[in-house]
Structures are given as structure tokens and as C-alpha cells.
Specification:
By secondary structure, the chain is an all-alpha fold. It is built from 12 helices and no strands. The chain starts with 17 loop residues before the first helix and ends with a helix.
Length: about 325
């Protein structure tokens, strides 16, 4: 239940129309497809192999955009407090981990393999929703989720561009993304902070984490100034556009998760993966086609499609039952 920002007491949860829910899902899916391809292009086309510096720029740009939007009264959030920062820190930590691992995984994996392994996020979200909200999926839904997992296993076992670092990073990304989505829903109700405030805390707390990681765990502080295209106007414009999409993606994830649910966000993620996988097979020239590997990717996609259809059907049924009772 939503809480009042000033009093902290529970307040009424607003009802959202079907059009609002649909727009939230479509916006998240479209931006997610775009940023995946743009981020991959930064690494594959421009050869900018500095994920920590890239992510730091994304966070800094997001904070700048938020304060610009607040200045023009297009976004509302108050001053940062220590108590709220402590409460939101777990969310910021998993968001930082999800961003870093996702960007780093794209450095090692082609887009289809990245997408097929990201689908395991759904399985983790289902487990989390059961543990946190006592939500039990139907048997057909569990069957479709297992189909996605089988697809990932087959694709990984037959990947001719095998990359252990890539698999490790994408696994971390799947787990941290699932925890992040679950925490958004839980902390929004618990803290009473608005969507904008949660986003601000996310970025402000994530920036020192990212800077510390870049300085301590990488050599990017020394290597980035040596990058040959660092002052190329076209590259810088492309980098800024990609970083701007990171802010927009975070906004869309918050919107989709709070207007709908963590599960709805992962369903949307499954659908956008179909587009991302198809485009990724041909855009960057780093996919080595193999029938068994392609079969694994297709199995994962099929599981995602079935899962999305079942989830939509189940949600529609629940809405109709609630309306009939009222």
C-alpha cells in the first residue's frame, strides 16, 4: 500500500487504466531494446572497452537530468536525508550491480546469447515473489519458465563464441536485476518515497560505488585518456545518447514496476528480447551461427512467448474477477 510522503502513513493506492499500464510496458520495452543495441555498439563498433567509465558517465548524466527536470518542475523530489539513504541503499547496491554486470556482459557476449541468459531473471523473480509476497505461479507458467531455462542451457552448451567471463557477468546481472525489481516494489511501499525520489537515491548512492569500483578494481582511469576516439565529436555524441537512454530506461523500469508489477516488467522484458535477439544476430557481425545454438535461442524465445501469453491471460482473468466482485 502506498504511504503518504509527509506522514509515512498508508494511503490509497491509485488505480491505473489499461492504457496507462500498456504504455508503461511498451515504453520500457522500446527503450530497453534501444539501449542494449546502443551499448553493444559502443563496445563492438567504437571499441570503447571501458564498462566502468561508461557506467559512471551514465549515472552522472542521470543525476544531471533529474535536477534539470526538477528545475523546470517536470520532476519532484525533496532533499536527500540520511535515514532514507540507509533504507534505499540495498536498492542502490543491486541496481549498481545490475548495471555494471549488464554492461560488462555485453563486452564479452553477442546480443542473442546475452538475451537468452537474461531470461533466467524471470525464474528468480518468481522465486522472490513467492518468498516475499506468497505468490504462487500456475503449472503452465512454471512450465514456460523451465522452457526458457532449458533454452539458455542448450544455447550456452553449444555457443561457439564461448566466454566464461561473459557467462559469469550475465549470471550476476540476472540475479541482481531480479532482486532490484523486487526491491522497487517493496521499498516504494515501505519508505513512502516517490518514484522520482527512489531514482535520485539510486543514482546518488550508486555514483560513489561506481567510482570506487572503477578506481580500485580496474585500470580504466589510466586507459580511458589514451582512447584514440575520446575527442571525436561523433563518438561523444553517440556516447551521450547511450548514457541518456540509461536514465530513460531506469525511469521506465520504475514506472512499469510500480504501475504494474515486477512480474509484468519481466514479461515485457521477455517480449523485447525477441526483437533484440533478432536484430543482434545481424547488426554486429559477432554471431557464429550453429544449428544447436540457434535451437537453444529459439527454445528460450518460445518459452518467453508462452510465458508472456500465460501471464497476460492470468492477469486479465484476475482483473475480470475483481470487477465482478465489486
Amino acid at each position: 500500500m502506498k504511504r503518504d510522503v509527509e506522514t509515512g502513513k498508508p494511503g490509497p493506492t491509485p488505480e491505473h487504466t489499461f492504457a496507462t499500464r500498456l504504455l508503461a510496458c511498451v515504453s520500457y520495452g522500446a527503450v530497453s531494446v534501444s539501449i542494449t543495441l546502443f551499448n553493444k555498439a559502443v563496445f563492438s563498433v567504437y571499441k570503447f572497452h571501458f564498462p566502468a567509465a561508461f557506467t559512471t558517465m551514465q549515472i552522472a548524466v542521470s543525476i544531471l537530468y533529474m535536477y534539470i527536470l526538477r528545475h523546470f518542475k517536470l520532476m519532484e523530489f525533496g532533499r536527500i536525508t540520511r535515514a532514507s539513504a540507509r533504507a534505499v541503499f540495498p536498492l542502490a547496491l543491486f541496481w549498481w550491480l545490475y548495471v555494471v554486470s549488464g554492461v560488462t556482459a555485453l563486452r564479452y557476449l553477442n546480443v542473442p546469447m546475452y538475451s537468452v541468459f537474461r531470461r533466467s531473471t524471470t525464474f528468480i523473480v518468481v522465486i522472490g515473489e513467492y518468498m516475499m509476497f506468497s505468490k504462487i505461479p500456475s503449472l503452465p507458467t512454471m512450465g514456460s519458465i523451465l522452457l526458457m531455462v532449458v533454452g539458455a542451457v542448450v544455447a550456452g552448451a553449444t555457443d561457439l563464441t564461448y566466454s566464461l567471463p561473459g557467462y559469469i557477468w550475465v549470471s550476476i546481472c540476472a540475479v541482481s536485476t531480479a532482486v532490484y525489481l523486487l526491491l522497487i516494489r517493496m521499498l516504494k511501499d515501505k519508505t513512502g518515497l516517490s518514484q522520482s525520489a527512489l531514482m535520485l537515491y539510486n543514482n546518488v548512492l550508486g555514483l560513489p560505488l561506481m567510482l570506487s569500483y572503477m578506481v580500485v578494481a580496474t585500470d580504466e582511469v589510466k586507459q580511458v585518456p589514451l582512447f584514440p576516439k575520446l575527442y571525436d565529436a561523433t563518438f561523444l555524441a553517440f556516447l551521450l545518447l547511450s548514457a541518456s537512454q540509461a536514465f530513460l530506461l531506469n525511469l521506465c523500469i520504475f514506472r512499469c514496476t510500480t504501475v504494474n508489477s515486477p512480474l509484468a516488467t519481466t514479461v515485457t522484458g521477455q517480449m523485447k528480447d525477441i526483437i533484440t535477439t533478432g536484430l543482434g544476430m545481424f547488426l554486429f557481425g559477432d554471431v557464429v551461427f550453429n544449428m544447436k545454438n540457434l535451437l537453444g535461442v529459439c527454445i528460450g524465445l518460445a518459452g518467453g512467448i508462452v510465458y508472456s501469453l500465460l501471464s497476460y491471460s492470468e492477469r486479465t482473468r484476475v482483473v475480470k474477477e475483481d470487477r465482478s466482485k465489486s
